[in-house]
Structures are given as C-alpha cells and as structure tokens.
C-alpha cells in the first residue's frame, strides 16, 4: 500500500474528528489501529509528529490581520500557483485569518516535497481549523467547502 502521511492524517481526521476521543488518551491504540488498517509505520509516526507540532503551534506570533502575505518561491514551488491562490481566497472570504494561514502554510510545508493536490489542501485547512478552539464557524464553512464537491449522499 503506497500511502502518505497526508493519507494517515485524513484517515485519522475522518475516523475520529466527530468521535469524543482524545487522541492523546491512548496513542498506542490509535497507532495499532492505523497499522492494522494498512498504513506503514514511518508514515504513522510522521503523522503523529505532524499533529504534535500542530498542537504546539503558537498563533500569538502571527502577523496583523491586515498584513499582506507574500509567499516564498519554495512555498509556491511546493504548492503551486493555484493552491496559493486558493489559500488567499480562503483568507479573503474570512475562513482563514492571518494566524491560521501561517499555521496552514507551516503544516503544508512540514509535509515535505509531497505532491499535494487541492483536495488535500482543503483537508489540511480543515484539520488546522478543527485544532483551533475559537474557529467553530470558520471550520463549519470550510467543512461545507470540502464536502460540497463530493458525491451526493442519499438518505
């Protein structure tokens, strides 16, 4: 199975975001479930490290809300112009504040030189907003964007 760290993160988020489980409560159990689901050990470990770094992120050292974000050549090269434009759009419509944009960029760049598509960027934004306790409305709006392009669900 050729899975990436991003696949592990998306699986964790889909499986446990709505559950009332504290991932820190029993990481070994979660780790075992991920390995049993077919994810390889290095990617599972990197995903947990990625989440630890997300939880350790301090948004108090972020730019002012009206500051203009200039993306570096490395950021644009890794993400692509369309992705950078999409992130700027999310900031413009109020889903991402300057603080969250910086966290999203940090977490995207932490994935390394992985080929990241637009759908995956949406998931990273969703995970970052979920981790921010004061971003419930923005999270709900982003969740709508993530799932609006998905297949229709019959009830």
Regions with little confidence, pLDDT below 50 for 5+ residues: 151-155
Number of domains: 2
- Biggest sheet character: none
Helix and strand content put the structural class at: mainly alpha
DSSP strand tally: 0
Radius of gyration: 16 Å
Strand coverage percent: under 5%
Description:
The chain has helices at residues 5-16, 27-36, 41-56, 73-79, 81-92, 98-110, 118-131, 136-148. With 155 residues, the protein is mainly α. It has two domains: 1-56, no CATH class; 62-149. It starts with a helix and ends in a 7-residue tail after the last helix. Residues 151-155 have low confidence and may be disordered.
Quick gist of this model?
This protein has helices spanning 5-16, 27-36, 41-56, 73-79, 81-92, 98-110, 118-131, 136-148. It folds into two domains: 1-56, no CATH class; 62-149.
Layout: helices, strands, pairs:
Elements: H1 5-16, H2 27-36, H3 41-56, H4 73-79, H5 81-92, H6 98-110, H7 118-131, H8 136-148
Helix pairs in contact: 1-3, 4-5, 6-7, 7-8
Question: What distinguishing features does this structure have?
Answer:
155 residues, globular
């Amino acid at each position: 199975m050729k899975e990436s760290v991003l696949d592990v993160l998306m699986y964790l988020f889909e499986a446990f975001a709505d559950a009332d489980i504290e991932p820190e409560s029993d990481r070994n159990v979660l780790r075992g479930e991920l390995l049993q689901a077919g994810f390889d050990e290095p990617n599972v470990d990197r995903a947990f490290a990625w989440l630890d770094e997300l939880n350790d992120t301090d948004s108090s050292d972020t730019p002012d809300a009206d500051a203009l974000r200039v993306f570096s050549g490395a950021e644009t090269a890794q993400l692509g112009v369309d992705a950078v434009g999409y992130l700027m759009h999310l900031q413009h419509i109020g889903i991402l504040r300057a603080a969250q944009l910086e966290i999203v960029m940090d977490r995207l760049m932490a994935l390394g030189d992985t080929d990241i598509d637009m759908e995956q960027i949406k998931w990273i934004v969703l995970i970052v907003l979920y981790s921010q306790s004061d971003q419930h409305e923005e999270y709900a709006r982003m969740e709508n964007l993530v799932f609006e392009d998905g297949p229709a669900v019959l009830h």
